[in-house]
Amino acid sequence: MSIQTDTPLVILPGRLAICRLPADEPFPDWSRSGELLALVRTPDELSVVCEERLVPPEIKAERGWRAFQVQGPLDFSLVGILASIAAPLAEAGISIFALSTFETDYILVKQSSLDRAVQALNQVGFLVLNYVRLSA
Predict the structure, then answer these.
(1) What is the mean pLDDT of residues 66-90?
(2) What is the three-class DSSP state of 1?
(3) Residue 78: what pLDDT?
(4) Higher-confidence residue: 117 or 101?
(5) The Cα angle at residue 42 between residues 26 and 23, in degrees rounded to 5
(6) Percent of the chain scored above 70 by pLDDT?
(7) For residues 128 and 15, what is the distance between their CA atoms, to the nearest angstrom?
(8) Domains and CATH numbers, the chain
(9) β-strands 128-129, 9-11: how paired?
(10) pLDDT of 81 above 90
(11) Contact predicate 106/96, CB 8 Å
(12) Whether the predicted model's global pTM rises above the 0.70 cut
């Protein structure tokens, strides 16, 4: 079973940040009130993805990301979901940051690449919802 390009992608409102904290840092309270939160701890770091507005200025972070949500829930037997989205974005020269949950996937692109990302995804048949063109 593979994903169909007619699976809608929804652009989430708001901008996100990808933060890097020391590996032994506790999960930050400042990140917890937003709509989307991902915490990943490894022996080398604690990565936090959260709403940009919540991140204190002194935190090391890549700001200005937007998220596409794959409309789920997705069955675990589906294959190639991220590849089918990442490939046209890579061909368009757009970097991504990917997140997966139990039910779906999220693909983050920089705000400055959002218009080009939507265009690249539309060209291969993806329906993108909640899109408001950023530039003329």
Answers:
(1) 82
(2) coil
(3) 65
(4) 117
(5) 40
(6) 87
(7) 17
(8) 9-129 (3.30.2130.10)
(9) parallel
(10) no
(11) no
(12) yes
Token pair for 57: 């200025």
- What does the block give as tokens for 80? 């190639």
Residue 109, pLDDT above cutoff 60: yes
The torsion angles phi and psi of 81, rounded to 5 degrees, stand at: -60, -60
> What residue type is 68 in one-letter code?
F
Identify the residue whose tokens are 């507005």: 53
Paired sense of beta strands 46-51 and 128-129, if any: unpaired
Cβ neighbours for 20, distance < 8 A, ≥ 6 positions apart: 45, 46, 47, 60, 61
Which long-range contacts (C-beta less than 8 Å, at least 24 apart) are formed by 50-57?
50/16, 50/17, 50/19, 51/14, 51/15, 51/16, 51/17, 52/14, 52/15, 52/16, 52/17, 53/14, 53/15, 54/17, 54/30, 55/17, 55/19, 55/30, 55/31, 56/30
